[in-house]
Amino acid sequence: MITGVNHVTLVVTDLPRALKFYADLLGMVVRAQGPRAAYLESGTLWLCLEHGVPTPRSDDSHIALSCAPADFDRLYARLTGCPQWKINRSEGASLYVLDPDGHKLELHLGNLASRLAHYRANPPDGMQIF
């Protein structure tokens, strides 16, 4: 049985630039850094940034990041200069941005319980809620 996400690895073209984005803008803590990779931590998330050539996807695959409700507006303001890849149409406040290498990120207020409550109140066609 899966118990959670162990870690996420993102390939980046410029490690110092990626560290600036994830540490300085998003507030993640750098735990280790070498010439080809860095490891950051934020809450229970362990993020590895690995130097290479990323291949951005054209679909809706993305990483959604949570923050405390009190921090959302501050982080939103920090990220508004980043390219946006989607307009929020889901329940809860969200901002959809690209990191410097084109990885799709979502800053989201909400959780699975709030999403399911929204679907119970506004059932999409064909969606079963268990």
Automatic annotation (TrEMBL):
UniProt entry tagged with the keyword Transferase: yes
Bilayer-crossing regions: none
Claim: Metal-binding is one of the keywords in the record: yes
PANTHER family the record matches: GLYOXALASE DOMAIN-CONTAINING PROTEIN 5 (PTHR21366:SF14), GLYOXALASE FAMILY PROTEIN (PTHR21366)
Name of this chain's protein: Glutathione transferase
GO molecular function, one term: metal ion binding
VOC domain mapped to chain residues: 4-110
Originating species: Roseinatronobacter bogoriensis subsp. barguzinensis
Keywords associated with the record: Metal-binding, Transferase
Domain of life: Bacteria
